[in-house]
Amino acid sequence: MSETLETEVLAAIEAAGDEASLEAIRVAELGKKGRISEMMKGLGKMSPEERKTEGPRLNGLRDRVQSAITERREVLADAAIAARLATETVDVTLPVRSSPAARGRIHPISQVIDEITAIYADMGFAIAEGPDIETDYYNFTALNFPEGHPAREMHDTFFLQPDESGARKVLRTHTSPVQIRTMETQKPPIRIIIPGKTYRQDSDATHSPMFHQVEGLVVDKSANIGNLKWVLEEFCKAFFEVDSLKMRFRPSFFPFTEPSMEVDIQCDRSRPGEVRFGEGDDWMEILGCGMVHPNVLRAGGLDPDVYQGFAWGMGIDRIAMLKYGMPDLRAFFDADIRWIEHYGFRPLDMPTLFGGLSQ
Amino acid sequence: MKFTLSWLKDHLDTDASLEEITERLTAIGLEVEDVDDRAVFKPFRIARVLSAVPHPDADKLRVLTVDAGPEVNDGKPLQVVCGAPNAREGLVGVLGRPGDYVPGLDVTLGVGKIRGVESYGMMCSERELQLSEEHDGIIDLPADAPVGTRFADYADLADPVIEINLTPNHPEATGVYGIARDLAASGLGTLKETPVERIEGEGECPVRVRVETDVCAGFALRRVSGVSNGASPLWMQKRLKAIGLRPINALVDITNYITFDRGRPLHVFDAAKVEGDLIVRQGREGDEILALDGKTYALGPDICVIADANGVESIAGIMGGEASGCDETTTDVLVESALWEPISIAKAGRSLGIITDARYRFERGVDPLFMEPGLDLATRLILDICGGTPSKRSVEGVAEHVPGVVTLPFTEVNRLTGLDIAPERQLEILRNLGFTIRSQNGEDAAEIEIPSWRPDVAGKADLVEEVMRIVGVDQIASRPLAPLSGVNGRILTTTQSRDRAARRALAARGMAEAVTYSFISKDHAEAFGGGSEALRLANPIAADMSDMRPSLLPGLIAAAARNFARGYGDTAIFEVAAVYRGDQPADQMRVAGGVRRGTAGLAGSGRAWDGAAPSVSVYDAKADALAALEAVGAPADKLMIDREASAWYHPGRSGRLKLGPKLVLAEFGEFHPKVLKKLGAAGAHAGFEVFLDALPEAKRKATKTKPVLALSALQPVRRDFAFVLPSDVEAERLTKAAAAADKTLISEVRVFDVFAGGALGEGRKSVAIEVTLQPSEKTLTEADLEAVSTKIVANVETATGGTLRA
Questions:
Q1: Neighbouring-strand partners of residue B804
Q2: pTM
Q3: pLDDT above 90 as % of chain B
Q4: Fewer CB near the last or first residue (10 Å), C or N of chain A?
Q5: Is A252 on the interface with B (CB under 8 A)?
Q6: Domain B717-804 - what CATH class?
Q7: Which residues from B are below 8 Å from A125, CB to CB?
Q8: How far apart, in whole angstroms, are the C-alpha atoms of residue B45 and residue B155?
Q9: Is 60 exceeded by the pLDDT of residue B23?
Q10: B278-282 and B209-211 strand pairing
Q11: CB-CB neighbors (< 8 A) of B563 in chain A
Q12: Which residues are noted in the entry as Mg(2+)-binding (chain B) (predicted)?
């Protein structure tokens, strides 16, 4: 009889569709007045022999029903969660908003100045700065520009309004005035680089009325052209991120250096829109340099027979264009958001020597 | 400066190849800009027309059979269709074949079919080969021209042309002779010394010269009478053409030739057209000249001229005049060889906008001692080419030439360059360059006299450069700069560090960094407190780039407007750069400024499926300003806010961030609609400027250790309060009053709701705050909470005049 009962109860448990009907079965069978509980109560009235067989049988029945109910409850609970989760499904292909740090951009000029800074910092250079609005003295006279030099003309240099004495300030045409300002305030040894804005009356694809230069100055009692070559070779290799790079130093002329040189670097321009450094047999002019002119040392308050040094200057925008391939300088200053997004750098991509200057 | 290889070899005896010569030129500071090896002419062959018959289908065309020698088409004749009127049997001309590039047409020839007849090449005209403008017919060579040989060899077109880019020094290299001397000094051959024959002439020069200006440092003149001024000889024409000069007539060509050969500009006047004496003087009001370039120039007092009784005949050192110029009818010529002060000539040339070969040389400095030899050299060529009889020289106003002398310590080359060059070698180089060794001061130094053609050399550093360029910069070995320390310390100044910190912080807030011009229009400058006279450019490159900017905002707002005009209205841009409050160095200030336009807030812009971004507001700008300030190290918890932002901001939606009552660190807000209108901007804008220099430098601490962290084991308790306040009471007054209720227990007061209108009525608002209480020693009891709550309510009611909302 109890086998029929067990079959019937287990079938009912299996058929229970929800928690409530399962509980109803539990109460009906195992509750205080449940069928199986009642049967178990009958054990007390039985003879010991009967109890010996009936006891285990009823206990087994009760345990099997109990565990069937527990199992079924788990199945029902899982099904309920699954059903809930199914209703919570969303379209994961819907786009999310990008993070601000992924959207923001650093202008190539700032990034390249940071790259330059990282390299020269490693060579023990400090950074000096000076004003954009300069006096004629710092921009020209102290740098050994003779009276009547073409650079002093209105068509090359931006002038401000004359003061009471007729003297006109200029927008500095190079970062070199900071050489003088540094020598005036700092005793050798001097090792500085001077990045900054410079201005000239010029506008086409490779010239802009405002541009950026980085100037370097080393003054001590022994710095010579051999040292100058080393500094520039090390810089160019590091900046253009090539293992070796041929450089060509040509004698040239600048008022503030003597001897003066221009420097070309080896490159390959055979691929349109791309310049590769350290290969090819083309030369590209990249900077001007030389030994600081004795008159410039004197203007800085130094005796040119005791102190000596070298200086160089290069266009930051220009080396940025060469390294990263922007075709037109004027676009640097147009703030076209499409240009900045394309050529700009991510805010967290900080140039370092230990991590590589660029990604 | 341009010249040909054969011309150079007139003065330089050398076996060096073209490539060796050009490499050496660059190495000694005469940078080769371009070498035209004239390979373009190489393919063209001399060919004979064997037969010429009319084209079957075209009246003006002829079908030629052409023999171009055994090397062409296996010696078999070629068929060529030709339209030239002079194409005829027996003509010897120049043949281009399929595959050859024709420079005058800028095409590469192919096998053509002209009106049904195949053509295997082209008989060329002079214009097609860019030899001249001649195009009336094909080239018609003498009948004995060697058929089958290269035309370039026959016509001497193979002479390579070298162009050097001359720096402002090196006046000696404005003449082929000087270049040859430099090359010889560098060991690339021997200079052919060619002393100039002295020509005394007969009879006084009939035209007298009066020098009335210091710009003239000497003036030599002579008449050559009875000349016949035809075309100059072919050898001279070829060289002039090769360097891009148009042959004019023998007299003019001779002056041009000597200009390039010796760096000695000359001028010739037709004596018949000169009236009275020549006066060298400064220009006067009303002076003008029709110059040889066909243009008329007004000549003011800054320009030196040569005048006669008819008026101005020549612009000194720059260009002659049409009226007294020489042509084929000239029989008597006045030849001028003068010296001019370089700076005056440079200034005059620039103010007139004239660039000539004469100016190019005079502004660098022409050899004063070659003034008379130059005149004699010209006379010699005139006599040889045009005949005639020379007068004596008339020489006026010659300033004495005192050669410069420099003491060169032999250690100087090594000191400046690192090169080890023996004293004898140093002196040899200088001697080869024309320097004179006056005396040698024992082992250590020498007195060096500077040659008259090197006015650019003045000191010992210049002599070092001379030695260095001849030895070769490539001989200088790179030498590491000795390190100053093991590990380098921080190299950025505080200002520089702040620039970088602000820049990266703002970019990390989704903003794009712009670099805009430091000069803006006067209107824009004035709208932002600038536009003062001291900051106005005297010569702006454009009218809207006239004034140094007083603020970064006008440039950024204008940039946002440009992007909007391109279809990108939601932009967030910033710049970290200088603004100018005056023309002194201290007036230049570092600012981090930014503008958000449209809906370009921190989270992103525009519409999205989960909600559209709202228009930007004063709060976006405030958050940006605070982020930049925190990045540069400002103490965020000590900042004060007021509403006194500058006039270009919206008066009700802007503020300032200050440290203490006076120190303004930043301004932020939406903009005044009148200012936006002035900048041509419309729509939602919010911006800020952080004054990076204003923040006082933090004191250097003795230790980098951070303060001890005290963590409470007890849970914080949060209580909400809502107050009804008069609308004009600022939220900060409420939060400060609440926080003051118990400064140790209350760790945070946060505004979580602001509401106005509805049942509250006019002039009132409801502000709800969440107060966080952080017990440190024991759990708070109900009584503790009650006590602090009462205190908070009382404090707020007293401070704000508001009431706890029921």
A1: B723
A2: 0.87
A3: 79
A4: N
A5: yes
A6: alpha beta
A7: 491
A8: 11
A9: yes
A10: parallel
A11: 335-337
A12: 456, 462, 465-466
β-sheet bridge partners, residue B222: B335
Q: Do B504 and A347 touch (CB under 8 A)?
A: yes
Q: Which of 100-119 (A) contact B at CB < 8 A?
A: 100-101, 103-107, 109-110, 114, 117
Tens of pLDDT, residue by residue over B250-307, are 999 999 999 999 999 999 999 999 999 999 999 999 999 999 999 999 999 999 999 9
B609 touches chain A (CB under 8 A): yes
Query: Does residue A352 lie in a domain region?
Result: no
- Distance from C-alpha of B7 to C-alpha of B5, rounded to nearest angstrom: 5
ipTM: 0.89
Q: Same domain, yes or no, for A112 and A257?
A: yes
Whether the pLDDT of residue A2 is over 70: the answer is: no
- The verdict on residue A16 lying in a domain is yes
Domain ranges in chain B with CATH number 2.40.50.140: 40-154
DSSP-H helix ranges across B323-399: 342-352, 357-362, 371-386
Residues B162-172 have pLDDT tens digits of: 999 998 889 99
Closest CA–CA distance from residue B517 to any residue of chain A (Å)? 7
> Is A123 strand, coil or helix?
coil
Shortest CA gap B455–chain A (Å): 14
> Omega into B726 within 30° of 0, i.e. cis?
no
Q: Which of A222, A219, A215, A227 is nearest to A190 (CA)?
A: A219
- pLDDT tens across A237-290, in order? 999 999 888 999 999 999 999 999 999 998 888 888 788 888 888 888 999 999
The Cα angle at residue B777 between residues B772 and B780, in degrees rounded to 5: 50
What topology does CATH give the domain B209-396?
Phenylalanyl-tRNA Synthetase; Chain B, domain 3 (3.50.40)
More confident position, A4 or A126: A126
Is domain B2-38+160-191 given the CATH code 1.10.1040.10 in the classification? no
Q: Give the separation between CA B247 and CA B253, rounded to whole angstroms.
A: 6
The answer to the question of whether A258 is labelled as a binding residue is yes
- Measured CA distances, B750 to A245, A334, B725, B746, B787 (Å): 60, 42, 16, 11, 20
A98 belongs to a structural domain? no
Q: Which of residues 183-242 of A touch B (CB under 8 A)?
A: 189, 191, 197, 199, 201, 203, 209-210, 218, 223-227, 229-231, 233
Residue with tokens 């049967």: A39
User: Could you tell me the two tokens for B562?
Assistant: 């440009």
